[in-house]
Design brief:
Distance between the termini: 31 Å
Order of helices and strands: HHHHHHHHHHHHHHHHHH
Helix content: over 70%
Number of helices: 18
Largest sheet: none
Radius of gyration: 21 Å
Shape: globular
Length: 434
Amino acid sequence: MDNKADSIKLFSFDTAPMRAFHLTWVAFFVCFFAWFACAPLMPVIKGEFGLSMEQVANINIAAVAITIFVRLLIGPLCDRYGPRKTYTGLLLLGSIPVLGVAMAQSYESFLLFRLGIGAVGASFVITQYHTSVMFGPNVVGTANAAAAGWGNSGGGAAQALMPLLLTAVTMLGVSQAFSWRVALVVPGLMMIVMAFFYWRYTQDCPAGNYDELRAKGELPQGSKGGWASFREACRNYRAWLLFVTYGACFGIEIFIHNIAAVYYVEHFGLSLGAAGLAAGSFGLLALFARALGGWLSDRAARGGKLNSRVTVLFVLMIGEGLGLLWFANADGIVYAVIAMLCFGLFTHMACGATYALVPFVAPKALGGVAGIVGAGGNVGAVAAGFLMKGTGDIAQTLTILSVLVLASSLCAIAARFTMTAASETPGAPAVSAA
């Protein structure tokens, strides 16, 4: 467990940490693609089922609601059974509602399957857990952010590619009413294939798999497992502060993924394809922006300055809030896209900076902390969904959310580490008291 990688060798697959790094971000990419595959097709689905804006809001809420509970559960499961078994199981079980949504015949059945698909979003916690146990303190922020960011880009890829896939199926002579169903089968099959590769080529930690290490008595003393991890994390106030900050960055990210295509079509009159490309550009920022946020956090923390990670997160959230306010009030499609890219850059970087802090909050209860913070992102998305349902106007909702993001940035400052907390964190030299 202690033989963690102290560097990231991107083109190497020879070591367990690097195999886990590459397979976990690819698995998260597939899950994120499947999670948001419906979103860019919603203008078509909305027309077929005759959905109202309230029903669209309900679908968007369902897409992220159940993820809150599954993320809380999945962290302790990683501590108990290991990320390898947990990820494989999630991929296989998650493929069922992904395939099922293609067979929905009514608003109610579509809503039910969309609710089930939300469980796939818990894959993020496993990705962050797996990289955290594989990489040392000097690079863990970068590893976490890069894996999550590249995986997150699956949302942007879905926004851009699903409309193209629908068009390709239609060109083969399939009616549009059936072609969106055919298109949605693809991500379900991708998840099944990915489950095989994750089971075959990864292991839980540098030393091996948890069940084998437990049998030999080689897991480190003091590590929390299962619900003990969750209880330990619940007692740590920093976990709940980061729960709020992650809700204000990743929650906004999910919300934008769900409403961007509809917003561009209805507010600016774009075609479905053009709206998908515009919305997809937001998600594709994750290819580098999350990693940049984690790298900045690692860079700022050199020399034992653990609280510098907190300062980086605070600054990024301020940038996110101001950028979101600009996007909400942008006149014209050009300014709207530019504003979206600007605030999206800060949003993705803030997500990376948040999880660069997670491994240091309660190292002996990593799964519990990762689950709580990850759930915060979905709580933020659900809250944003209910807010939009209440206002009935996307632009007004975005304006209110920008103010809430700015207020949430104060939680980052409140998460500062004291000298005692820092000294108890492996690999983190003591810092001055907050």
